[in-house]
Amino acid sequence: MASFEIRESRAPSSLGSDNRDLNMRPSLTVNPSMSGSMSAMSHLGSADPHVLQKVGETSLDIDVKWHSSPQEYPRSDHAALSGSGRDQLRHFDAACDNGSGSLTIVPYRGPKVKAKREPRCYRRAYRVDALIKDKNPRSELKRDKNGQFQGSFQVFGANERIRSDFNDGSRSTTAITREFGACERCKGQKLRCNMSKDLFMPCGRCSRVSHQVLKAPCIRISICSLRLHRRGSTLNNNLRNWIIAQEELFQRCCVQFGSEALETLSISITQDHGIEIPVTIRRFIPLPTDTTRWKWRDNYSQERVMEMPPFYICDQDELARNMIDAVISNKGEYINCLLGAANPIVRKTFEAAFRYLDSSHSSLVSDCLTFWVATRFIEKPWRICTNNLPDFEPLYEPYVRFEEQSPYSGIIPVTPIMDTQIDDIAIRDILNPLEKRILSELNRKILEKKPENWFEIYLATFILLNNFEFVFHDVVEYTSRHGLTPSSTGAFSLSRGYFHACKTMLVYFRFACNGHAPLSISWNNPSASIGSLTFDQREYIRDIGTEVKNQGESLKRWGEGSVYRTPLYLCSQVLVEKWSPDVDNSEPIDDFTEEDFLTS
Hints:
With 600 residues, the chain is α+β, with helices and mostly antiparallel strands. It has helices at 38-45, 84-98, 130-133, 168-180, 184-189, 204-207, 238-257, 316-338, 344-360, 363-377, 416-448, 454-482, 494-512, 535-550, 552-559, 572-575, and strands at residues 3-7, 27-31, 51-53, 61-62, 64-65, 102-104, 138-143, 149-155, 264-270, 276-283, 293-297, 303-307, 311-313, 383-384.
């Protein structure tokens, strides 16, 4: 048996690594007088795996060639050489005794223990050579169908991105972005979009950028997709089909009995707010499915009925023309009648809108005012203001208690079919075209980011929000008068859509064009920047600022109230200095749908 001592010619690495160069030649000295092999093996076992080749029996110098192993193994010592380790020693001793001239050392690998892998969410990306390999060009050999080399394709630059796993915050942000999508700015710049769960809040990156720098507002809702009114008064275009059937029946009656059998009547209808509309009506033969009476519930929740003669408006085109002319020519008087007792903030704002319309001829402000009036057409009840009509007599209830009196007491209401036709004309010929023009023009003005557009945007936003205040009030009044309960069809709530539209317009006004900034300036200060505002506009802002200061407590109380019953609930959110989209209604939004408001 022989003992070995390994003497290396270089100092150990400061990093503690056991790697050797392939050309390293350590010198080994063999002492034949040593009879034990345990010491030699323990010393050799402390080195890397290697192979001894060409051991001469007569020479004491042994050439050693080191082979680097593809895998590093743990060191072994006397304590570790047990069990299978002793078998390796016997194998080594036997090889040395027989003098075969070839020696192979099999290192001790240790027991195989399968390490438990950590979950992916707690592991970090580990690439020792990431900075080296990722910068090397990626080569791809191109061969033909016969396998002959034709060329190579190389991609230079970092071709792999080594990314660590998400932390809890990044994981939550990514989940929100995947659900709601990223904003256009972060999507275009390929940045992580720190989007909020609130649909009306900008993302974290865009909220730190001035609105003048952003090319488009960081809002996930398009202002052109809003709904500003209900869509119709009948379901599945039933009214059109019913009118066509009545016209065909009228033609057959004229052939058989003459035109005198179903003669027409010319009357005028009004809402008592400065507008009268002439219409032409004709009697029809009611079917069991036709609605010919008004229903309502009194203060004791008892259902009451008022029968009406079967008349309908036979000239739809005449009604549309007269209604459009009345809205355009008399909208000022109509608004003054309805807002005569309104809050000074509302009255002064509408007066400023009419003055601005006279000086600038703004199509946006004009359309908003027309839209405001036309929306009242489908809310307020209409009555016949022509006297001495056959079959039409006003309802008088002198001996009925006030709690049980009809809402039509003392007047001649239009028939249910006529009311449905008026709603259909107002929605189809006035509200639908105006809604598209208003939203597209308002969106264009906001995206232009011109200071001279601010006053026009402010007036349009205020008028539309005030219009929604009337709409929410009418929802409560109409459903209470008719004793309606929300349907269980699962359709989308009409009021939720209105509330969504209001918050969206406020978000665009606040965040997209910084709309509250001019309202917060003290215009009494001579050093205040005039900008593009005229003298009349500055005077209006000064007056509104005074009203806001005088009604500060009321504005705060209105903002915490109900959208159904609190005046200026929506308009006050335009004027207050601090505002957030998470402002909620003090009472839950109702679940009434389009079908609940069908008149016939």
